[in-house]
Amino acid sequence: MNTENLNRILYGSKLRAYAIMRWTTYTLTLLSIGLLLYAHGVVERPDTLRVLFYAIDAILAIFVIIFFLRILYTFERKKFLREKWVEGTLMLIILINHIGTYLLGIPVIYNIFEGIGVPLSVELYRVLVSLYMLVLLVVELLETRVHQKTVQLRPSITFILSFIFLVLLGAGLFMLPKMTNAPEGMRFIDALFMATSAACVTGLAVVDPGTYFTFAGQVVLLCLIQLGGLGILTFATFFASIMRQGIGLKQNAAMLALLDSESLFSTKGLLRKLIFLTLTIEAIGAVVIFMSWGPETEFVNLGSKLFFSVFHSISAFCNAGFSLYPAGLFTEPVRFSYILHLTIAMLIILGGLGFPTVLDVLSPKAMRERLHAPWKNWKMLSRVTIYTSTALIAIGMVGFFLLEYYNTLAQLNFVEALITSFFQSVTTRTAGFNSVDISALNVPTLLMFIFLMFIGASPGSTGGGIKTTTFAVLLLAVGATIRNKRNLEIGHRTIPHSVAYKAFAVFTFAALINITFIFILSISDSQFDILKVAFEQVSAFATVGLSTGITAGLSDVGKIVIILSMYIGRVGTLTLALALSTRAPSTAYKYPETHLVVG
């Protein structure tokens, strides 16, 4: 039977078959994830675990069968395999592992990963497959007209709700018995705090992640960091490109301005480029970190060393600042690992520059274009971001070196002091890693850190704060006012007054939030010095994660304030920018001018 006859026979049942396969996959995916959570979070008995894993493997086998049926019912089969090569590779791995495990008695996945010392390899493999299938189903559901008509939410509302869902999901997972080493389990407020800190890539912690969480809990923490780090651009681009009816031209234009894309059509390809670039940088960072561990840094096995490398690479690029060491990078085995510190600093810088800037400067396409046209300059956003970030890093480095030379840097030589100053200047604005004792810093240093944290990273990045471009526009506006200039100018270009209005709105919003929350914290946690309270609050709002050591000692009210601050700091400025990008009902009028004295 040739291909054409086969297609003709299958044509009549194609729609019904696709509907059955879609709902079967949807149901089994949810069931497999539920079984995985029950197995890794609750069940202790080995015989019960064995039954659960057999059930999950049976579901994975059905996934393979459904994939082959989709190939059968696809009339352009070669094109289908080219487009679904990732899913096809995954299904092939499942098929090989199932044949080896259940027919030949050779557990392929187990043998490969246990041979190099990676723990829980089979469990991780099952989790990754189930999560991948869930992502595919979510994308498929979002593309259907039924879903688009039932969920008609504005992009900013969808973005806010997505982070709430991620935080609550993480808190629920942290409260499962097998996620922590604490016999009594984790309190809800503490689980909510850690989930918010991870999802909002902050790094403040009320427990030590390296000892308090089990390996499963650390994996959940890492997933929250990765999803939270990609959150702004992923959700924004995702809903701008996939929900074609739910989001119109106006919202696409907002994404165009936010991401500094070349056209409305190019915004649709940003998600794929973002994920590819992110995973590539994180993978390179993990390899370099793996090679940077010194002989004094001991690991249980090779798998533990790999996990530590991946964890710190993702935490650095996402500007989260979480470390599996109790005192961060100030912990004795890695305190003087300066190659490791520089590697993490570079990952922080790349994550903090923002995806539009990294794509404009470091993407293969952009570098090829500049080889052919060396005269071609960076985009204006890239220039402002890089120049402002460089200036702030230099100011922070010199300031820290001068202020702490006879304090926390006293035991280091000149080169070590320079590297430490550079590292702390980089990490202070966005990431929250520390290679010195933050509680021992001088008061002027803490004040400088508050200033740097408040500015934060760049737009479209994984960091927080008011953003470097906002700070640059504010400086330009102040300069133009002092010089009595009508327009804001930069690089022989004029900045619209609407951009200055947005910059002042973001600054005012951030200042009011921080002042209000510091006032509340000064009442709820009056036992702490006001400077430490202010440092903690600004660190939370700017999603930095540096602390003078008071986080675990905060009252429940104080923890709720910090949770709200981390959340608002992560989503607030973007939500405000999207809200301000919409048009007023009418602007075709102007009231008479009046004189108002200011200053």
Q: Could you characterize what this model shows?
A:
The radius of gyration is 26 Å and the shape is globular. 68% of the residues lie in helices and 1% in strands. Among the domains are: 1-143, no CATH class; 362-580, no CATH class. Strand 1 (488-490) and strand 2 (493-495) form a beta hairpin. A two-stranded antiparallel ribbon has the order 1-2. With 599 residues, the protein is mainly α. It has helices spanning 3-11, 14-41, 46-73, 77-83, 85-103, 108-115, 121-143, 145-150, 155-174, 188-199, 209-212, 215-229, 231-241, 249-259, 270-292, 302-317, 338-353, 355-362, 364-372, 380-404, 414-430, 443-455, 468-482, 497-524, 530-541, 556-580; strands at residues 488-490, 493-495. The protein is built from 26 helices and two strands. Helix 13 runs antiparallel to helix 14, helix 20 runs antiparallel to helix 22 and helix 22 packs parallel to helix 25 (530-541).
